[in-house]
Every structure is written in structure tokens, then in C-alpha cells.
Design a protein that fits this description.
This protein is of the alpha+beta class and 165 residues long. The protein has two domains: 1-68, no CATH class; 74-157, SH3 type barrels (Roll). 24% of the residues lie in helices and 25% in strands. The protein contains four helices and five strands, in the order αααβββββα. The chain has helices at 3-18, 30-38, 55-64, 143-147, and strands at 76-82, 87-95, 101-110, 121-130, 135-140. Strands 4-3-2-1-5 form a five-stranded antiparallel β-sheet, with no helix packed on it. The termini are far apart. 20% of the residues are buried.
Length: 165
Amino acid sequence: MHDELREAIAKVQRVAKENGKSSGIYSMSGDQARDFADQGFNMVSVMTDMVALPACMTSALNAARGSYVHSALNLEKILVLTADGRTLTGTLLSCDQLTNLVLQNTIERVIRPHDDPEDSEEVPHGLYLIRGENVAICGLLDEQMDGEIDWAKVKGSVIGGVKHT
């Protein structure tokens, strides 16, 4: 393992520990991870059962917008409909071959039925991992159009899950 990659891994683990989080390393393969570390990229911390991306790393990811970033860090705002019928939006940080998704600034939209007097709501979840087996559909979010909608006033039928018994 190259010294630069080892240092990047140690930094991620140290910052995660300082913030009371767990950490692991996501990479495409060992060779690719080394290649990107050699190019000056820091590796991002992701585990399948726990995600740790401390707030101090957010500024580094935001700085990457507009520059060359490997497709593992898309940094695009997406909308995900899950197999259990939930609607989530957030910034895509990472994905893998099993469609596991890591979202930052995740918001769950809870749309109320027409006969419910309570307003619909947006529930913030922050950093969020969605297992690939729970992804029903995923796509880019038109942020301009999305920003023009008052989601508290939107009413509609409940989207059912895809698993039926």
C-alpha cells in the first residue's frame, strides 16, 4: 500500500474516531484506490452497515464539485423510491455494483393522503445508506423544479411497496 493512501486512510479513521463514528474504506479495487491516491484524491469512508463521513470532510467533497471526480463520488442530487414505498432525496456520495447508495443531506418526503388534515412533511435524515435490495427506482432530481414545489401542501395516494405476499 502506498504511503499516501495509508495516510489518507489513517486521516479518515482518526477524524471518524474523534467524531464518535465508525469508519471503513470504499474503493473500486485496490489498484484503482492506489491510482486515485497517487493522483491526490482522498478516499471516502463507507461501511455497509454504518456510514461515517464527518462534517469536516463535507467541505472537501464540495470543493470537488466542478473538478474531475471518479464516478464513485457523483455528488449529484437524486431522488430514490424504495421498495418499501419511501421517497428520499439527497446528494449521491457513492454507489457500488449492488446499488447500495450513500446519500448526504438526505430528506424523506412523507406525502399525506387527500383526506388527512395534517400537512405533508420533509424529514431530514442527514447522511444515509440505502441498501441496494431496497432501491426500487433512482434518478437525477431537477433542483429548480423541485425548489418551486411547496412539499408541505402536496397531497397524494400512498405509494405501496414492491413486495407483495
